[in-house]
């Protein structure tokens, strides 16, 4: 019988020091929020109630407990329409307390990168995201395999070191 993958909230709730997230795709499955943005709708950032989601609150609560949350995105340039949207909505991530950086893919050539996006909790437990070619989540996998964790941690730190802080990355 397959083991149950804990929810993101459960994993973050157990985290004591750090959570890092590496994103490697130039697009993911479109959401209604993305489609609205494509139609020209924009978020009123001054009206926090209209855009603050449970995810944002989870991040804010976790950061308030002293957990550092960092997200790095490796992106092709010129960026895809999806990445332009992600850059726009990252205001919410930063407001919630995430530190976010962007690395142009051309600067990542000599970084050994894993084949999948992941979250790494306290440098010990990985939640690996498996996507379809269209960017739909197929499944998540949990592993504490030491070699895999080391590869992902080293990859994240190498990307982070070279990446551009969100507020300085211009699209």
TrEMBL record:
Please state every residue range assigned to the domain named DUF6879. 7-169
Report the InterPro entries cross-referenced here: DUF6879
What this protein is called in its record is DUF6879 family protein
Please tell me the species this chain comes from: Streptomyces milbemycinicus
